[in-house]
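Support case: nicotinamide-adenine-dinucleotide complex. Customer-provided input:
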Amino acid sequence: MGAGIAEVAAKAGYEVILRSRHDSSANGMVAALEKALAKQVEKGKLDEAESAAVISRVTATAVLGDLADCDLVIESVVEDLEVKKHLFRELDHYCRPDAILATNTSTLPVVEMAVEAGHPERVCGIHFFNPAPAMGLVEIVRPLLAADETIASAREFAQQCGKDAVVVEDRAGFVVNALLFPYLNNAVRMLESGIASREDIDAAMRGGCNFPMGPFALLDLVGLDTSVAILDALYDEFREPNYAPAPLLRRMVSAGRLGRKSGFGFYDYRK
Ligand SMILES: NC(=O)c1ccc[n+]([C@@H]2O[C@H](COP(=O)([O-])OP(=O)(O)OC[C@H]3O[C@@H](n4cnc5c(N)ncnc54)[C@H](O)[C@@H]3O)[C@@H](O)[C@H]2O)c1
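Agent response - structure generated as follows:
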């Protein structure tokens, strides 16, 4: 997600610093961006000069202190509240007091990250969808302590990036995932109960509802570990049975079948 958000922001004309924990992964993300842009040039969606301009706006680093002058920082690390809280404490140390610190979390309580920062009024959620360059929506999440200007700036940023922005309150799953994940989870339960194969369930939802992809293809795209983390957060918040992750999902995560990112999930991507 981080690399996709960097692509979106750089295309919108922003100077972007892509920070990863290791130089190799930071440089790897820039290399992947170069490859993605080259493909777009090949397909005629972007010209060479635009592609070069986008690349020139992106710098890679492993040093958190390099974010000291940023106006806006969007974290997109693993969906784990403790990891994110720790990162917000670090960002608070390195970033300007007037910088907006945002999280791309899909479900976690943004206010818990905000209170780790010295200026919680400058913290909000800026939730992109996967893949960020292709998806038109951004949810702007307003935690209890956010200032109106923070939300207005975040919305303006999303719009500058060419996205439709909706402002939502800080509740697990916000709008999209609170509605989407019970459906995805129920598809896994349906598979467990043997009603139909994963291919047929996917085909049924594509053909019957005109969805661009079925639930198993979508779960593989999101990542099964991220999906379990999202369902856990929804279940923790609302205690509704529909949010409790289907057992098969957890077993697949334990087995390392995480979806596209590991090459194998409900479908096999290793060929
Ligand atoms: N996958 C999706 O469809 C999707 C969509 C929207 C938002 N998100 C959100 O984006 C964020 C990242 O999700 P993703 O799917 O890209 O996950 P991912 O597992 O693909 O990537 C997570 C990144 O976090 C890094 N990381 C892991 N542990 C860390 C630590 N202790 N400190 C710092 N970095 C660490 C990993 O190296 C990796 O680069 C999550 O908050 C997720 O909810 C995901």
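The pocket of nicotinamide-adenine-dinucleotide is lined by residues 1, 21, 76-79, 83, 104-106, 128-130, 222-223, 226, 261 (CB under 6 Å).

Case will auto-close in a few days if no follow-up is received.
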